[in-house]
């Protein structure tokens, strides 16, 4: 009946775009940034395909989305995917796979304390057990669902498991147990679920033996509820009416309404129920031929159900194979992309290593260059200090040389002054001697004559020159030796004249000292320059100073 469908199902929130759809983009752009909005579109496509019965395509979308949700640890998205996959397998009558995915979704809901989602899973798990006629398990999970909803005060999820409990007890032919559940559910349910609960209540009336109430209620519902036909509940009403007539032994009426029920439904499972009802009616009425015919119809319906079940099993296995093949392709792509990522990361590591090495090399070069620069600067500083020290020494030497030169010059000036003094003195003595020699009266004076002779003898003596040479050598050490070494042919008079030139005396002064004329002194200077082979362009004083 309609109430056994996944009436607790709600469309899940649309999820994030799956990892494997994002991976090609990542491999291209080196970026894993997939968004939930992208995955939302993929999940929406899966839901649409599931609603159209294209379960293989739907499961492909859900599989892709699940890979992404598991990897990113998105619990809510993973729950929605598992719930939708369970519902897809439920619709494909693969109850084992459906149960597996509903349980996985249920576990997530428990861990995350999502009470409403937990109730949805419990109700759908119970639906699976009910369809497999495992009524004990179905009752257990419907009961857990209803009690949990009551404890959490979630009224919207209380009525549904109560109605399904009533359905199970009706199937077990325990109408007394079923009735309280059905009555409670009618108070809580709305719309289509409420109509299903009312049909169950009519069935319960029939099981309790209130035939007239059940038939009247079925007719009233058929006439007063416009949605009965649209919701597929019309067939169940005809079955209830047919059974009421069957209990009253009005077999013709019972067959008539059973036929109407048969005409209003096409599902082999429900046709099997109607064929059994008609076979029972014909058997009770004594029409054994028709009874056998409908028993054959039951076998045919069972055969079709078996074919459908086998077809579903084949289809389910094919879907599983396709999904597994699709997963293998996704895993292959993942491995390829993982290898590409590893290669990319290896390249990045190599580039980083090269950059680090280059930085270290450049840094080392910089350190070496800095050290060399410091060494160069230090050497330059040392050289500069050395040069300064040399400069100080040279300056000191020059100053000392200048001092010595000044001292020599001063001494030479003293010697020159003394030579000039002696020259002037001799000149005066000579004038006196000449004057006295020209006076006869004075010559006759023997004493005076002796003094005059002494003066003349003094003038002829060369002792003063010897003193001059000795003082000159003390002042200008080595000069005369170097001069004689370079010009060995120079006479004593030549050396005396050169000494006066070296003392920077003028020609006039030299002429006075030597008691010669200035012209004679000049000519003697020229002859001396020629004798020493001094070029006319070179000053004799400059030449002598360099000896």
UniProtKB/TrEMBL annotation:
Q: Which family does it belong to?
A: Belongs to the Rap family.
Using the record, list the residue span of the signal peptide; answer none if the entry has no such feature: 1-27
Q: Does the keyword NAD apply?
A: no
Which subcellular locations apply to this protein? Cytoplasm
Question: Origin, by domain of life?
Answer: Bacteria
Which ranges does the record mark as transmembrane?
Answer: 343-362
Q: What organism does the UniProt record list as the source?
A: Flavobacterium rhizophilum
Q: What is this protein called?
A: Tetratricopeptide repeat protein
Q: Which UniProt keywords apply?
A: Coiled coil, Cytoplasm, Membrane, Repeat, Signal, TPR repeat, Transmembrane, Transmembrane helix
UniProt feature coiled coil, ranges: 373-418
